[in-house]
Amino acid sequence: MFELIFLGTSSSAPSVHRGLSSHIITHRQYRFLLDCGEGTQRQILKSGLGFKRLNKVLLTHSHLDHILGLGGLVSTLSRWENLDSIDIYGGKATLRRVHDLLFKVVFPAGKTPIDVNLITLEPGIIMEDSKFSLSAFPVSHRGPDCFGFVFEEKERRPFLEEKADEMGIPFGPERGLLVRGKPVTLADGRTIQPEEVLGESIPGTKYVHIGDVGRTDNILEVCQDADALVIESTYIAEEEEMAQQFGHMTAARAAQLAQEANVKSLILTHLSRRYYERDVRVEAQAVFPGAFVARDFDHFQITRDGARRLKENDNDL
């Protein structure tokens, strides 16, 4: 299960009700900030989430509406929060711009109160543990080194409690070892193999997050069968030509991708101020019924059943 909080859902420039691109994703002990547009640290405070353990930043690309808030955020984290380091992941072009922002503007002396680690993204796994993986994949937008991200739980095999009881396996470390896939020898000399007490594999939750993007043919495979897809929707179909010119998505094209990829839930963000939210929602739902249009501070839970809105910003948009 993942939880996703939208902090900024506007494109290019903020509006009265929408800040610039930023999101917080939580999973177990992990907290990720995905993109950091201008004003992100204030949005974090308004959301009530706070800065605790917010030490991993994922950047989709180098455009200012996705990175400009990093200067103020890193300055605040380094002075007021109990963090030793912050890891910032991005493509080469993105990190060059972030480096200039942080080390030529915010910390011109070149020294920071906390360690700032700029980590260059390459396609593939960024980090993983026994239950979860985070990977990056290239997307096509204006300029080089643009990425999307896949958050995915690993397959698991449920422990069959009733079967274990029938076999006389005691509660304690023996069951823990079997859950981890290791055989155990009981006090009576019997050796129990994990396959005897583990059920069929259950796929984990898959959540795909894409920032600005102009093509879908080269990301269809990575989106396939996702439980939730978050993607931009800067334009609507009547301005398709402009969307293609600037490397952006329309609501209809985003919805078509979700349909073709067989995703369970679609959430649209990065909306232009030129449209009403309902224009975007109606266009998307004509292709993909049930599509969401995100608002700032919307809170979603993402499971194998898709995305469920836990909290909705009720501003009249």
What is shown here, in short?
The chain is an alpha/beta fold. The chain contains ten helices and 17 strands. The strands form three sheets. It has an eight-stranded mixed β-sheet with strand order 6-5-4-3-2-1-16-17.
User: Counting H and I runs of at least 4 residues, what is the number of helices?
Assistant: 10
Into which percent range does the helicity of residues fall? 25-40%
Assembly status: single chain
In CATH, the topology of the largest domain is named Metallo-beta-lactamase, Chain A
Task: Write the element-wise H/E pattern from the N-terminal end onward.
Answer: EEEHEHHEHEEEEHHEEEHEHHEHEEE
Going by helix content, strand content and strand pairing, the class is alpha/beta
CATH superfamily annotation of the largest domain: Ribonuclease Z/Hydroxyacylglutathione hydrolase-like
- CATH secondary-structure class of the largest domain: Alpha Beta
| Whole-angstrom Rg | 22 Å
Proportion of beta-strand residues: 25-35%
| Overall mean pLDDT | 93
Low-pLDDT sequence parts: none
Query: Distance between the terminal alpha carbons, to the nearest Å?
Result: 29 Å
Total number of domains: 2
Largest sheet descriptor: 8 strands, mixed
Strand order of the largest sheet: 6-5-4-3-2-1-16-17
CATH architecture of the largest domain: 4-Layer Sandwich
